[in-house]
Amino acid sequence: MSFLLLGEDEIRQTVSLTDAIEAVEKVFIASAEGRMNLPAAFALGLPDVNGSVQVRGTYLEEAPYYVIKVENSFQDNPTINLPVQSEMTMVFDAATGFPAAMLYDHGYLTRIRAGATGAIAAKYLANPELKRVAIIGSGKQAYMQLKMLKLVRDVKNVVVWGRSPMNVDTYARRLIEEYDFNIEIALSVQEAVHNADLIITTTASERPLVKAEWLKPGVHINAVGSNSPTKQELYPAVLDLADVVVTDKLIQSIMMGEIYHALDKCIITEENVQGELGDLIIGKITGRTAPNQITVADLTGRTMQDFALAVLALEKALFLGLGRRIQ
C-alpha cells in the first residue's frame, strides 16, 4: 500500500480558485441536505508549551474518501522563528480506511476555503452592483477574499483599512498590479465602510471595529475574522440592525464569532438568525428580498470545506501525476 504526499507548491497547481468555489458550494448543499457526517472536534491542550491541537473529521455520504484535519496552534513558536499556526490534512480511502494522501499546505487550503465561502456569501446575499467594496484588514485573507470575490462580482473600487500602514500599502500595491483595482486607503474603519456596498472584515481583532450607525442601507457584510470566542469585528448592534443574518454553521456561531457576541450581550436571539448558508443556497430560507436591506454573513469556518478542497486536490494531483508516492 502507498499514499500520495502533496506539498503547497503541488496543491497550488491542482486547486484553481474557480474550482474551489464550485467545490465548496457543493458541500454547503450536501450539508443542507443532511448528507455530511460532521462529528465534533477532538481538542488536545499542551499547556506546558502554550499549545493546542484540534482534530476534525468529515465524510460525505457515498464519497470515495473521508478527511481528517489536524490544526496546531503554538503561541510561543515565534520565539524560535516558527509560525504560530500549522496544519495537516489527511485523506483516507472510505472503503478500506487506508491513507490515500497527506496534504501539507502551510494554511493555503484554509485561506482558499475562507475566500470561497466569502465569495459564495456575496454571490447569494450582496446586491448585484458593488460600486464600493471595503476591506478591513490587509493580510493574506484580506487578499484572498478580494481575489475570489472578483470571480463572482465585477469589482473596481476598493477601500482598505488596516492597523499597519506598511502592510496596507503593500496590499494595495499588489492588488493594483494584479487586478488594476481603484484602491483607496482609509485612515479609519469608519472612513473605510462609509457608503460601502460590501464590507469584508478579515482581522484578528478582539475588540469590535464596525458600528451599526456607519452602515448604509443595502450593504452586505462578510465577517470572516472572528473564528474564536475571543475575536470580534462587529458591534452587536450591527446584527440587531441587519434584516438578514446568515452563518456557515449555526451551532458553531453560537459558540464563537459575531453571533456569539450578540447573543452573549442579549442584543439578539437565535430567532434573529435566518439560518445557514447551505439552506440559503438550496432555497430553504430566504435571503435578501430588497435592495435596501442590510445583510450579514457570520463565517467562522467549517471542516466540510476542507473535505471539498482536499479531495479536489487529490483527484487533480492523480490526474496530473503530481506528488510523491510513499510506500
Write a brief caption for the model:
This protein is an alpha/beta fold and 327 residues long. Helices cover 34% and strands 25% of the residues.
Structural class: alpha/beta
Proper CATH architecture of the largest domain: 3-Layer(aba) Sandwich
Q: Describe the sheet with the most strands.
A: 8 strands, mixed
Order of helices and strands: EHHEEEEEEHEHEHEHEEHEHHEHEHE
What is the count of helical runs? 11
Topology:
Layout: E1 3-7, H1 8-14, H2 17-32, E2 36-37, E3 42-46, E4 51-60, E5 65-74, E6 85-93, E7 99-104, H3 108-125, E8 133-136, H4 140-149, E9 157-161, H5 165-179, E10 182-185, H6 189-193, E11 198-201, E12 220-223, H7 236-241, E13 244-247, H8 250-253, H9 257-264, E14 275-276, H10 277-281, E15 295-298, H11 303-320, E16 324-326
Parallel strand pairs: 1-7, 8-9, 8-11, 9-10, 11-12, 12-15, 13-14, 13-15
Antiparallel strand pairs: 1-16, 2-4, 3-4, 4-5, 5-6, 6-7
Helix pairs in contact: 1-11, 2-3, 2-11, 3-4, 3-11
